[in-house]
Specification:
about 290 residues; alpha/beta; eight-stranded parallel β-barrel; 9 helices; globular
Length: about 290
């Protein structure tokens, strides 16, 4: 498993690699544009070359690009939908240029509307974005189920993939906090294995392509997306260890999006703890 953290690309994407190295990461995740604004970032040839050189000379083996949270592919608002499409295309093209493992996307929200039509709208936007980019994978992230957010169940995720055309570029990013908040009890080896069996049965084999490791501030089935630092929430160290050591996750990038002790994201100490929990889980299974 490639363990890493969400880091800032301020000053250029090569700097994100350096920040990952500082934390001892095998993988990094970045926003490719200001998360509070709509203007997409287009990296220059020089920035792309610097990034690839930095990756080649570091221990970092995988990049995830997280599409910003402003996007809502399911919206009924045409202007918002157009902005979402443009931003998602920019993210996928950045992924193509930088050689990213995948772009991670929150599929969107039905808000107060019906889920079925919202999934169809989101699928159309996703299909258009894939058509306007080359080869970078797009991983739909499961959600905690707050309000009208799409992706709280494997049935919704499967429907989204189908609505987007079922491309082989489409996969899932499973977030441990979101799974737990949505009612999936993944705190034991048996519980997690059952959840993944359900995922494979409904979504299909080979669709899970990346992971987010976040503990949960809120209880099982709360439908609230509140990240806690690893081992300090409702999953606890044992639950995080179970998630990390699941054999079907062994080759995937797993990124921490935890708040950190100072509110500035995952630290090197948290990456070290995560590796220790992975090792403990592997020992229990052997």
């Amino acid at each position: 498993m490639l363990i890493g953290a969400h880091v800032s690309p301020a000053g250029g994407p090569a700097n994100a690699v350096a920040r990952g190295v500082e934390r001892g990461c095998d993988a990094i995740q970045i926003f490719n544009q200001n998360p509070r604004g709509w203007k997409p970032t287009v990296y220059t040839d020089e920035q792309v070359a610097e990034f690839r050189e930095a990756m080649a000379s570091s221990r970092v083996d995988a990049l995830l690009i997280h599409a910003v949270y402003l996007l809502n592919a399911a919206t009924t608002d045409k202007e918002m939908r157009d902005k979402t499409r443009a931003s998602l295309i920019a993210s996928l093209r950045a992924g193509d240029a930088l050689g990213a493992h995948a772009v991670v996307l929150h599929p969107g929200s039905a808000l107060g509307g019906k889920v079925g039509p919202a999934i169809k709208r989101a699928g159309k936007v996703i299909a258009q974005a894939l058509a306007e980019s080359d080869s970078c994978a797009l991983h739909l992230e499961n959600t905690a189920g707050t309000g009208g957010t799409l992706g709280r169940s494997f049935h919704e995720l499967a429907d989204l993939i189908d609505a987007a055309g079922g491309s082989s570029r489409l996969g899932l990013c499973l977030d441990s906090c979101h799974l737990f908040a949505a009612g999936f009890d993944i705190r034991t080896e048996e519980g997690l294995a059952s959840v993944l069996d359900e995922c494979v049965e409904i979504v299909g084999a080979g669709r899970v392509g990346s992971l987010h490791l976040n503990d949960s501030q809120t209880p099982l089935g709360s439908n609230r997306d509140r990240h806690a630092d690893v081992g300090e929430g409702e999953l606890g160290r044992r639950g995080c260890s179970v998630f990390l050591s699941e054999p079907r996750f062994a080759e995937l990038p797993c990124v921490l999006e935890t708040p950190g002790p100072d509110g500035h994201g995952p630290t090197r100490a948290q990456i070290t703890l995560t590796r220790r929990l992975l090792g403990q889980g592997v020992k229990r299974r052997s």
